[in-house]
Every structure is written in structure tokens, then in C-alpha cells.
């Protein structure tokens, strides 16, 4: 399998938020070499390029595994309003919990979302549906 382009090293390193020093240390090359590669002023051996890309790939995989999913961080104690609740009732449910949006349900099914911004920007709320 061919190696990625050397020009991609800087972008991949920046996405991972690692320094040239860290990458150089992990790939067993100098920071000056990383800098020269990123600036297009240095060619390197296949072995050194492979070490650099192996480390970047390992870090990318590690970072992907440690990222949380939406399901892990979502709120499960949902506050919802009925389709025909008045705006005053909606505000009463929002205010105590400091919420800015609520799910709108009808017959046990989610049918929409109402937000403070929608309420503030719409004089005739039926038109915004």
C-alpha cells in the first residue's frame, strides 16, 4: 500500500493537535526534519516516512476510539410539550430548567422542536410549522 503524501503531514498533525516535537520524538526523527518536510524542503527515506505515518495513523485511531458518541452524552430525561400546549405553558416548562428548546409531541410521537428563538421571532407561530 503506498504511503500518503508528505504534504499531508502538517494537516494531519494539526488535526491531532500534536507538536512537531512530539511527532519527531515518536517517529524517531528530528523536529527540524519534520519542519523541513512540512515546508516542502526535505526528502526522506521510505523507512522514516513510514514511521511518521504509522504514528499519525495510530494516534488517529486512538483519538477515534476515545471520542464519545451522541448516545453516551445525550440527555435522556426529556422535557416535552404537547402539540397544542400554549406558548405560556411552553415557557413555564422551559424556565425552571433553563432550557431554550423543547421537543413537541403528538400522540406519543415527536413532531417538532420549539425554541426560545422561534417563539421570539414568530408572531403567528402556526405559519412557522
How would you sum up this structure in a few lines?
By secondary structure, the protein is α+β, with helices and mostly antiparallel strands. The protein is built from seven helices and three strands.
Residue share in helix: 40-55%
Q: Using the 3D structure, state the CATH architecture of the largest domain.
A: Orthogonal Bundle
The share of residues in extended strands comes to 5-15%
Contiguous runs where pLDDT drops below 50 for at least 5 residues? none
What's the number of domains? 2
Q: C-alpha Rg, in Å?
A: 26 Å
| Helical stretch tally | 7
CATH superfamily of the largest domain: lambda repressor-like DNA-binding domains
Number of strands: 3
Assign the CATH topology of the largest domain. 434 Repressor (Amino-terminal Domain)
Class inferred from helices and paired strands: alpha+beta
Mean pLDDT, all residues: 88
CATH level 1 class label of the largest domain: Mainly Alpha
Protein name: Transcriptional regulator
Organism: uncultured marine thaumarchaeote KM3_95_D02
InterPro entries: CBS_dom (IPR000644), CBS_dom_sf (IPR046342), Cro/C1-type_HTH (IPR001387), Lambda_DNA-bd_dom_sf (IPR010982)
GO molecular function, one term: DNA binding
Amino acid at each position: 500500500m503506498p504511503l500518503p503524501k508528505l504534504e499531508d503531514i502538517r494537516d494531519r498533525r494539526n488535526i491531532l493537535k500534536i507538536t512537531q516535537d512530539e511527532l519527531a520524538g515518536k517517529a524517531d526523527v528530528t523536529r527540524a526534519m519534520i519542519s523541513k518536510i512540512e515546508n516542502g524542503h526535505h526528502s526522506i527515506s521510505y523507512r522514516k516516512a513510514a514511521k511518521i505515518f504509522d504514528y499519525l495513523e495510530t494516534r488517529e485511531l486512538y483519538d477515534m476510539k476515545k471520542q464519545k458518541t451522541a448516545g453516551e452524552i445525550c440527555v435522556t430525561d426529556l422535557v416535552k410539550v404537547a402539540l397544542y400546549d400554549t406558548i405560556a405553558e411552553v415557557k413555564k416548562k422551559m424556565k425552571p430548567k433553563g432550557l431554550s428548546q423543547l421537543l413537541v409531541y403528538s400522540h406519543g410521537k415527536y413532531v417538532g422542536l420549539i425554541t426560545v428563538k422561534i417563539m421570539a421571532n414568530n408572531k403567528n407561530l402556526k405559519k412557522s410549522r
